[in-house]
Amino acid sequence: MPEYIEGYGKVHPFDGAFAHLGEMSGRAAAPVHSAHPGEPKLLSSIEAALEKVNLHDGMTVSFHHHLRNGDKVINLVMQAIAAKGIKDIHVASSGIFACHAPLVPLIEDGTITQISVSTFGAGPVAEAISAGKMKKPCILRTHGGRPRSIETGEMHIDVAFIAAPTCDDQGNMNANGPNACGCLSFSHADAKHADYVVAVTDNLVPYPCTPIEISEDYVDYVVKVDSIGDPNGIATGAMQVTTNPARLAIAQRAADFIDAAGYIKDGFSIQTGVGSISLAVASKVREKMIAENIKGSFGMGGITGYFVKMNHEGLLRTLFDVQCFDLDAIKDIATNPNHLIIDASQYASPGNKGCAVNQLDVMLLGGFEIDVDFNLNVNTGSNGVIMSSSGGNADTAAGSKLSIVVSDLMKKGGRCLVKDKVITVTTPGETVDALVTDKGIAINPRRQDLIDKVKDSGLPLVDIHDLYNMGQELGAVNEHPKFGDRIVGVVEYRDGTVTDVIRQVEE
After folding, report:
1. Which of 27-31, 148-152, 254-258, 342-346 shows the lowest mean pLDDT across its residues?
2. Nearest alpha-carbon partner for 217 in 208, 230, 228, 206
3. Distance CA 337, CA 351 (A)
4. pTM higher than the cut 0.90
């Protein structure tokens, strides 16, 4: 056999059916152990998986947050890592919630030295970070920025642990089963790019598991545990349409504004947050669609039972789902061919060849505060403590044709939504088009086209500075949290640039 063939190249002679599996994997230090027929992927425990992947100090491990406040996998894995005495771990979870309080001692003892998230629930972990207990700054990304950072290699994942509601012994998995969460969208980039992938399941089924959302060719090992979590922790009380008359009036005003701007028409698309007032806007938009026989193209984002209802009514042709926000959505996605799973990269990454947020017409945004330049703070509360991450906020504000913040002007505790300057810039003001409140509608001066469109609509249009002044006249409590010099959080925009930093809160 020749060593070199013209027009082909160097010849590598065959020398055994399994001799070159490690080279095929493209992982110099991580051969595909499980590809050999004699080596099963199914392991007896998380501890066994840690041994197989050679988990050691300084590694980055990732998780997904589809079980939200019902997740158990992050705690299980990280406690197993801590028990082995491994330190300096970067937890690159797509989300952290109050249920992850057991991570706080691991932050304090140096097991965890950094956390990266795109969704952050208020609770003990966020409070510990704000208090300066973690060695390195927390990185707060967007839902699109996270997969972009993984795909470009900016955030390299050594081991991805994927909570799989249903899985077979080869790693084919989906989000159905006794502890279903609907979809695994935030794990797709991890599965494709991590050095090792470990599926953690409590519902092991015979091969092949169907349907397949993440397939066996991405998965190195499978571990069965007693429970990956509780789906009842997914939904919260905020994921219901408000019944408050004042808030329903704001929702009606927002729907009238969207209509006056010309966006409620055949083929339009919409995404809402999960706040009760945002869902109320969707309910008012639905009423207009029914009255005028309008059929929309798609609803998107974290899908709730409300959007499921609109789909079944024929008002929205398709649902693009990156996370199911309630049990109705979880049930529907398993059987409805028009309820589609899309991964986080297709949803919102600015680094790929096209993402769905760029096709979005109307986006209803939430936030803790907005300033007179329309900058939106989704990260920190009035006391300066980390409360959340951007999620899809900055992504959808940038991609949609009309992004609207809908809220009461005056918040709990006498705080005014509109500030002279927000504590933390999460979503840049240049991408926020309007603010709808009970005291009037402020349109970003950058959107002169929108101002011209609705100026004769009869809607109560005001300058955002006037809303700020109204708040002061109503006795707004202007809290100014005290920060130290130490940076405990870095707020990344979807393209990897930094919009702000978060400093340690002084006691």
Report:
1. 27-31
2. 208
3. 28
4. yes
